[in-house]
Design brief:
Helix content is 18%, strand content 23%. The protein contains 8 helices and 15 strands. Bound molecules: ligand MTE and molybdenum atom.
Amino acid sequence: MLLDNNRRNPSAILPSEITPQAVFEQRREVLKLAGAAAASALTGLSLPAQAATAGSLSFAKTAYGKEETLTSLQDVTSYNNYYEFGTGKEDPAREAVLFKPTPWTINIEGAVKQAKSISIEQLLKLAPLEERIYRMRCVEGWSMVIPWIGLPLKALIDWAQPTGNAKYIEFISYNDPRHMPGARIPVLDWPYIEGLRMDEAMQPLTLLAVGLYGQVLPNQNGAPVRLVVPWKYGFKGAKAISTIRFVEKMPNTTWMKASPREYGFYANVNPQVDHPRWTQSSEKRIGAGLFAGRVKTKLFNGYDEVAGLYAGMDLKKFF
Ligand SMILES: Nc1nc2c(c(=O)[nH]1)N[C@H]1C(S)=C(S)[C@@H](COP(=O)(O)O)O[C@H]1N2
Ligand SMILES: [Mo]
């Protein structure tokens, strides 16, 4: 059933159809987009030419994270976790080059007034786009600072009109082994599924990102739309979202299925609760240099405004 839904998002070129000429044409297209994005940096967001609302979209700068030192665009786009395109950090940048994230729709289903779908073009009209600089912390012990462009997830939730039975939201990433070499390998239980409690999803920090560094979201970072939840470990940020399902029960997420002892549903950044294989008390900033040393990790990644969501909860138990 999930796969049926996902077939509505076909990436245009099958691996078997790729000729050297096709590869060349695609690359040229990619470069053209990169050029257009660079030209409009800081003032506009260029959408892929194929999108219905081609051209430039503006986004507002915000105060979020303006004091932070950004991780370089090079590091943000070449050191990635995206197992659908391989388990190596450098795999996604290479393997996702031909992936076509347009046209795209997100299916909205489950506990909603009416199941429906929304195109990226419609999504972008739900709320003004904002640039927000967020600290990102991966459970593996490294971190980055990324200038995302996106809109609050709350805008989409309001549009979706969930019913009173909606207690959690499930995010299902696009999954098509024909276009995602890593998805042909059962390293995870595909498709990639993440989830949030409803109040976490409505929290103003929770973002649907469609861009970074003034550009359309690169494929390796989860084009065309991915979740960003800066007070949680990076794996909560499902990439290339194809379905959003409102549910009554806590979703069984991909990483919980893979290793429930290591990955909890909440996955809040917490220096007091170590992962069995990695300390969570400190982190390495990617690109900070060989001698920079480790940075102390903060509870909720320093986003103290979310503490109220977990008042009275034992964060060691609900990790
Ligand atoms: N669909 C999907 N989403 C995913 C992942 C993945 O493998 N598949 N990896 C997660 C992990 S572990 C991290 S740290 C972030 C990395 O995002 P970035 O590459 O944009 O920094 O994406 C998350 N989202
Ligand atoms: Mo991660």
